[in-house]
Amino acid sequence: MHTEVNPESPFGGPSVPKRRAAGLLGRDGELDTITGLLRAALRGRAVSAVVVGEFGMGKSSMLTAAGELAEAAGFTVAIATASRLETHLSGGVGRQLVEGLTHAPAEPGSPRPRTPHAAEILPDHPPRTEREQTEALDAFFRIVRHAAEQGPVFLGIDNIHLADPWSMRCLAYIRHRVEQLPVVVVLTSLIGHLQTGEVALLEMSGCTPATIRLRGLGTRHVAEFLQVSVGRFAEECREVTGGNPFLLGALRRRLVPGMDLDTAGSAMIGEVLRVRMHEYTAAPKVLEAVAILGEDASFDLLAQLAGVDESTALEAIDTMVRVHLLTNSHRPSLTYRFVRNSVLADMPLTTRAVTQSRAARLLHDAGAAPERVGVHLLEATAIRIPWAVDVLRLAARHSVVEGDPELSVRFLSRALEERLSERKRMAILLQLAHAEFHCDQDSAPARVREAIDHIDDRETAAFVATAMILSLCCGPDARLAINSAGQFAARLDAGGPDAVWPLLCMTYLAEAGSRLGPPPDFRDFERQWAPLNDPASRQSRSGLLALDTVRGGESSANAVRHFGEALSGEQPELFEQPYFFTLATAALADEPALTDKLCQVLDTERLPWDFHVPKGALATLARGIALQAGGDLVRASVHFESLVRQFDERGVTSRCPIAVLCAARLIEVSVDLGRHDVAKALLDRVDFGATQALFTHNYLLYARGRLRAATGEPELGYEDLRGCGRRLEHHGMRFPGFAPWRAHAARTALALGRTDAAARLAEEDLEAAERWGAPRILGGALTTAGLVREDEEGERLLTRAVDVLGGSTAKLALAEALTELGVLQARHGQAEKAVGTLRMAAQSSKHCGARPLARRAAEALRDARTSLATAKDNEHGLTKQEYRVALMASQGLTNREIAEALHLTRRTVELHLSGAYRKLGITGRTELGSALGRSQRVDTD
Length: 941
Hints:
Pfam families: AAA_16 (PF13191), GerE (PF00196)
GO cellular component, one term: cytoplasm
Protein name: HTH luxR-type domain-containing protein
Distance between the termini: 129 Å
Number of strands: 5
Structural class: mainly alpha
Strand content: under 5%
Keywords: ATP-binding, Nucleotide-binding
GO molecular function, one term: adenylate cyclase activity
């Protein structure tokens, strides 16, 4: 190395060299420390320093630079290098130092004194007797002292941790004896190396040496060394190597434009590390196991993969953590990616592939996630692993869910390398078509055609294509599934209706659920039924009949009968289809027996076809919908909340039709529970725009309308409810029980003062409910109709609603009807009746957990009781309103004038007058004056 003397330096020594090796880049501070030590030594006292760092961090370069600085400053420099292969050679390092001191050139003009040869002082074997040891140690000290008397001395030992024990004793021996001499001792050591010999590092360097810790280079110096610009690439190079100069040198030799730094490595580096680790028991095997397992490197798996017992593995891990080769974590990993890649690059391809397959099996047996197992299977190429196919398919499925279709393509491509049956190859090709569809939509059709070419069994082919439709249920995915199913159906059609029916059935449902407009013509589809003989086909036919009945809104009894037939066997696929499930659960919510059967069918051990949906989610959602319909709001909300959390974790709350339905149901239940903040928070998390292509968006729109109407935004709520209605009508949905938008739109219209619109909506709702005939739906429509009427007809409708709902399981709907009836009775002056009705309403709504409704019923009950108490103060028991109406009538006002003055309907005025006549014992209004006068006289008396 070339150095320059800087005459301006107060030390009078060298400046920092202009051209540096990687190990000296960015080491100005460390070199300044060395310079300070040299100055201190020139003042006549001994100083020492220890340079520590990881493998390849530039310790040797630093020691060489320190020696050159010392030589330029007039020091006699002796540098020794210890190595693993010479550790057993007694005095090897000491002899190197003696030779450096005894062959040092003398000052010009001064005679060279005769000094003994190194072999005379340090024999090949350590002295045996105590006297021989003392003489040898003293001889070494005399050599150092003699050199120090001639001028300052610099002693450097590289890799002191590898020095032989006798040389270490020599250094420890002179440490105290040269304290008043101009001697600098610089030792380099691997960080974390355990001193297991008789001489410790501090005994050679002293208790307070200057410690120079070498760390990785910064981005600027990395860029300078690699001759690249400072920027993102330089930062990535620093990240993968930790700025380690030795690793950077290996990287620079392989650096090419556009290279993938995540996979960059050097087999030479791997070989060096493997050789260096040989001195530690089982360390090379554990090192390879850590590199193979990567982020899956748990302690137990490391030991198993390395083929060593846990105690041995722990000892090897401890050693490599201390030397900073492994991270200090619960899951040890190689400190830098470049090192891991280098260890892997050093492994023969076959050895690496077999070890990766063993790692995959260990992870699989330990219950690791399929995608983690799959990552290792990708590296186990050219090896047949039959059990890996199903794992790779599951890993591919999860990758698509997580938004990484490229990884899914890799998993499936690896699966295709195995020996496969035609059936399984066809299934994998279809799955691959879906994954590639997310990467490049134009490539998917070719994969589908390739899959069709592998059809060797019609039934299996129909099953696989049906599974694809069930798996791909939203957005563009659904269109891919429908188009693929059409190609399969065309190929299978020659096999007769029984062969193609299941596929046609699912295709029809997928079409119906993915369209924003009217579904396919059911009558066209009906022509496929006649030749059906297979029991499963007839069962699915019953399901479609039920669906058509629901969509037409014609007869609850017929729909229930068809659903019962569809549930008579074990064919869960039909009920797993999102569109079918959504409408079936809404229609069966009032049928406990069929709901239980549905949940049994759905509650299977296998994973759902739809990879968005957690296992058991459909049964949980169906139970929640039934609980909601029955008025058990708290339990229903628990079911919905648990599912929404799972959908949130998968990141599909706005993409999966079932997830959207679940979120909408939870919003609606939260409104009924009075948990408006929960409903608002959930609605904020849903990407409303992303759900619009899904049929279940209708329910979400309905739920948002209810929330807005309940939280002071009636106009916006009304628009949402009307929008839901328009979409359902456009879709041909006449079933009033899916989302009872008319009932809530009518109530919101009343709140906005739009009485005509409210009456029209209520009338339409009642007509649809009477056609459908289910008690909960009919009772709710009767309640709405009663709300928009103030006359005797309103009370009759509400009374009928209570009667209809009283025999059903719809407790919340009954509580609503009781509340509205009680309020109307109180308004009509029937306080005694109102108290009884409202008492039942308050109890029922509280039992349901409907706090807003319970609060309204309780307030109305208090008002009714107050009104009843006021009425009893009157001798004839007239209520306050009855007395007011009777008094105005006795003064000659007509019923119309009284109604306008008191803001009542004429029918209400007539009801109040009839009540007053009865209580006063008179027959008409001509007797009112005298009857009221007698009452007043009695009060006065």
